[in-house]
Amino acid sequence: MSINISYIRFWIFIYEMSINFLLQATRIIHIGNYDDTETRMIYDYLRNLDYDILNDYFITNSVLNYNNDLELYIEVVNKMIEILEEAEEYEKCQILFNKKEESLDIMKNIKEKV
User: Fold this and answer.
1) Where is pLDDT greater, at 53 or 94?
2) Regarding predicted confidence, which is higher, 13 or 114?
3) For labelling, which of 8, 30, 69, 79 has a CA lying 20 to 30 Å from the CA of 86?
4) What average pLDDT does range 2-22 have in this prediction?
5) Is residue 100 within 8 Å of residue 77, measured between CB atoms?
6) Is pLDDT of 3 > 70?
7) Smallest Cα–Cα separation from 45: which of 63, 25, 29, 30?
8) How many other β-carbons are positioned within 10 Å of the β-carbon of residue 21?
9) For the residues 79-104, what does the mean pLDDT come to?
10) CB-based contact 59:106 (threshold 8 Å)
C-alpha cells in the first residue's frame, strides 16, 4: 500500500511542478523579456506534454481566471506560436498548433460527454 501512496505523491508533485512551470512561462511571455534558452525550454515543455496531462489540465482549475488549466495551456501555446512565427520557426509552430488542436479536441470531447 505504501508504494501506491508514494506513487500518487510523486505524480501530485509532478503535476504541481507542471502547473508552476506553466504559470512561470505565462509570466515570462507576458513580460516579453525572454531569451533563446527560455523560449526553447517553454517550447520543449509545451511540446512534450502527453494526452493524460492535458486531460488532467482540463479537469483541474488552479488559476481562478480560467475555467480550467487547459485554457491556460492553450493561451501559452498561442503566445509561443506568435513568438516562433516572428523567429520564422514554422516547423515548431506546426507542432504547437497540433498540440493546441489536441487540447481543443479534449475540451470538445469532454464537454460532449457532459
Assistant:
1) 94
2) 114
3) 69
4) 62
5) yes
6) no
7) 25
8) 15
9) 96
10) no
CA dist 112 → 15, 26, 95, 109 (Å): 26, 29, 26, 5
Give every CB contact of residue 60 below 8 A, 6+ residues apart in sequence.
Answer: 15, 19, 68, 69
Give the span between the Cα atoms of 63 and 70, in whole angstroms: 10
* Per-residue model confidence (pLDDT) at position 73: 94
The answer to whether 42 and 76 have CB atoms below 8 angstroms apart is yes
Return the exposure string of 70-80: e unless at least 16 CB atoms fall within 10 Å of the residue's CB, then b: bbbbbebbebb
